Amino acid sequence: MPLVGPPVALRERPSRFWPALLWAALILVGTSWPNISVGPDIGGLDKVVHFSMYGGFAYLLLRASRYRASWGRVTIVLACVAVFGLVDEVHQAYIPGRSASLADWVADLLGGTAGALLSHHRARPTPFTPPLPS
User: Fold this and answer.
1) Which residues make Cβ contacts (< 8 Å) with residue 11, sequence separation at least 6?
2) 97 is in which domain, residue-wise?
3) Would you say residue 39 lies in a domain?
4) Percent of the chain with pLDDT over 70
5) How large is the C-alpha radius of gyration of the chain?
6) CB burial of residue 107 (10 Å; 0-12, 13-18, 19+)
7) Using CA of residue 80, residue 83, residue 87, residue 93, what is the dihedral sign?
8) pLDDT at 4
9) What is the count of structural domains for the chain?
10) Second label for 95, Cα 20 to 30 Å away, from 10, 12, 61, 86?
């Protein structure tokens, strides 16, 4: 009976997951600081930060997990990003000066979707057009 092991991407090169793991750690460290103020309170700026951070996370995670680009992998990455974002929002509810927000989670999901789609698009092979004879 064959042994069941880690996914092919993890068996081949586990080091390619380091950027995604470090990015996730950066997100958790950034959201763990109590009473953070990074400048003037510009309406919607925090949503842009959420969108950007989770977009980068999804991009790196899909890039690392790819053996072949597929929509199934995009779906799995988006599910991971959704759960990670939800856990992070709940985590923020226990940090002084922070709060959990459905709007922040939606920004996380939208950013994750954009990052995953960008990563998927960049990984797709482009059709080769042979040069015209001269």
Assistant:
1) 5
2) 44-124
3) no
4) 74
5) 18
6) buried
7) positive
8) 55
9) 1
10) 61
Tell me if 104 sits within 8 A of 46, measured CB to CB.
Answer: yes
Q: Is residue 91 part of a domain?
A: yes
What is the tens place of the pLDDT at every residue in 51-106? Answer: 999 999 999 999 888 656 678 889 999 999 999 999 999 999 999 888 899 999 99
Residue at 84 is within a domain: yes
Tell me 3's DSSP state.
P
The answer to pTM > 0.85 is no
Distances in Å between the Cα of 89 and the Cα atoms of 2, 26, 77, 86, 103 are 40, 15, 18, 5, 10
- List, in order, residues 6 or more apart from 110 with CB less than 8 Å away: 51
